Amino acid sequence: MVYIRAKKVKSDQYLYLVKSVWDSKKSTSKQEIIKYLGKASDVVKDDIPIDYRNDPKVLSVLAAYNPKDIKKREDATKKSKQKLYKKLTEGNLHESLKTYDEYTNVFSSTDFFDKILKPVMYRIGDEWATGKINIATEHVASNIAQTLVRIIMDKVTGSGKKKKILICVPLGEEHHLGCDVLETYLTIKGFKIYNMGTSIPTESILSFIDNNNPDIVLVSITLEDNLAAGQRLVKKIKEHVNIPILVGGYALQTNSTPKFAGEIIQNESLEEIPKILRKNHN
Known about the structure:
Strand content: 15-25%
CATH superfamily of the largest domain: Cobalamin-binding domain
Number of domains: 3
Radius of gyration: 20 Å
CATH architecture of the largest domain: 3-Layer(aba) Sandwich
Number of helices: 9
CATH topology of the largest domain: Rossmann fold
CATH class of the largest domain: Alpha Beta
Strand order of the largest sheet: 5-4-6-7-8
Distance between the termini: 31 Å
Number of strands: 8
Oligomer: single chain
């Protein structure tokens, strides 16, 4: 059974998606947290993992918390996604940046990356794969999105006093938008980021690790065709040095995920990534 649990901190309510799991040793059920959802007034349907998003009990709880604010946020999110999709596929950087500015006047940059940019780029990737848009449009949209993230990144600052994180891709992977988004967000959170989001030989990555001693490696894979190369890269890093390795990206958003020598991250929001990094380094 899956349901939402609320926890009050001072005057605010915070929500958790939890499930009941049977403990055979104690002959009783216990709660396991599936995902921390955030402040109750800010949580919307898109924050729920897709497997539980249409659960009537979950939806009824969401509707109970500030329904007017939730409806306003859902409408703003829907409009912003539609606008960003249109401007990216038209190659309009100025209007794409304007969409970001308008959205983040009300919501956070994290919300923009998680709830606007990510689903829009997934949609563009799916439409290219199914022939709804051509390769030229996909390239234009991807290039504008990458430039947009770089502009956003230039606006942010971070202390760089937390752990050192290396972000890289396997040989042959040319998509690095996910790497740039991670660099931007984790920089805001104070991590020292080495963004090697360009396809380079594995030996060069190993040499960089030797010279810079990152605490954790993040491997991003966008295309399914690059999963095998990603497996080889993770295996080589693991054989070379004892370091935590996290693997994520659009190619991992499937039900038949291949095995990796590192930990796979699927359907996690940006807000969860620092927690995962801390857990893997402790």
